[in-house]
Amino acid sequence: MKWATTAAAVEAAATGLILFLGPVLFGRLIFGAELSEPGQALGRLTGIVLLGFALTSWPDPSARPVTRAMLVYNLLATVYLGYLGMMGTLVGALLWPAAILHLLFTALLAAECMAPRRA
Fold it and tell me: Tens of pLDDT along 6-54?
């Protein structure tokens, strides 16, 4: 199931690209709020980080450290997005779909981490 790591990397890269190119749009869709200028700068910086993080899985998405890193990222993103949604202060149209997507990747990556290694 190493495709789960690749899919999670594609999602991280896409999120990073959207954050880098359009942090205001990202803020509206995910948080339902406008980002301040410092928030936009931080969003772009986060986009750069996510793009770099996504590239760690290339060319070998089956490497255990990559899968574990993607698992931790998706788990923490699920928890934080869920927290934001339950607090109800920063809820945009795509907050819950994003939380569910990260939850799905968390489950798939956890299964991949627990699967026996093939030689």
Answer: 899 999 999 999 999 999 999 999 999 999 999 999 999 999 899 988 8
Q: Are 57 and 9 in contact (CB under 8 A)?
A: yes
Q: What HEC string does 77-109 produce?
A: HHHHHHHHHHHCCCCCCCHHHHHHHHHHHHHHH
User: Distance between CA atoms of 85 and 60, rounded to whole angstroms?
Assistant: 34
Residue 22, Cβ density class (10 Å: 0-12 exposed, 13-18 middle, ≥19 buried): middle
Instruction: Compute how many other C-beta atoms are within 10 angstroms of the C-beta atom of residue 94.
Output: 16
Is the distance from CB of 104 to CB of 88 less than 8 angstroms? no
Q: Count the residues in the chain.
A: 119
* E strand residue ranges, the chain: none
| CA distance linking residue 23 with residue 27, whole number of Å | 6
